[in-house]
Amino acid sequence: MGEYAAHIPVLRDEAIEMLRIRPDGTYVDCTFGRGGHSVEIFKRLRDGRLIAVDRDEEAIRAGETVLRSIPSRGTFALVHANFAEIDRILSDLGIRAVDGVLYDLGVSSPQLDVAERGFSYQHDAPLDMRMDRSQRTTAYELVNTADEAALAEIIRIYGEERFARAIARAIVRARSRRPIRSTVELAELVKAAIPAPARRSGPHPAKRTFQALRIAVNDELQSLRISLKAAVQRLAPGGRVAVISFHSLEDRIVKETFRSAADPCADLDLPPHLPCDRTPILKLITRRPISPSAEEIAENPRARSAKLRVAERLP
Length: 315
Prior knowledge:
Number of helices: 15
Low-confidence stretches: 1-6
Oligomer: single chain
Helix content: 40-55%
Order of helices and strands: HHEHEHEHEHHHHHHHHEHEHE
Strand content: 5-15%
Largest sheet: 7 strands, mixed
Structural class: alpha/beta
Shape: globular
């Protein structure tokens, strides 16, 4: 299985344990990636079914070989799609309800490490950042066509970058002379736009801007909102949804979606005498998110910010 066999995703064991895989159950891995979670689910199936979804066509192509190499009496389907389409995917496959849904929201190592994908400020490559390379919008188009206010808003909100205005201004000034084409060119622009004292500690100065652009190019947060709500509705009673997130914006969406389904009356501003007639459909399994162990972080520093939240469908 090559690189797939060597790759262990963050919080893999904890996520698989929390899903409580039944040999005859139906499970959806919404982020197939390098197959680490799907392999562990598939190993545990006898008469069950795995649906593995990924936006990256390369991951789906490799997935066929990966899953066929696993001794399992289960069946699988690989689907090239955005996980926001989970409702349609399940309908197309004739599946009404599932016993578990898993999300690993981290960008996979091949996407980060393969320079040509344009996700990383550490490799010189064309500005791309598309998870699905069949889609039209790239980071190049966003950086070179969005107006200054829109760029600043993207960088401020999605990157949680306090110097967003200065960075957007620097980008617009630079592209007025010639288009910004490469990851290194953009990273240097961002670095120069951030005051020197703020660059002396912490991660690379371009990290937050690159994160923001990636989220915007792939519409990641809206896709997550849509997909999670649909996944909750598709769970069979006792079925679980497990989500591994890597930054606060994702975690907030997961937390709020779970809380809203577990306590639908909490946000209603009702008079004291008027009862709430909404029924909870989820039970929170993790009141606080599960974090990686110190050992896992030492082996894989990218795991440091990971959080696992799990909820279960009520009868």
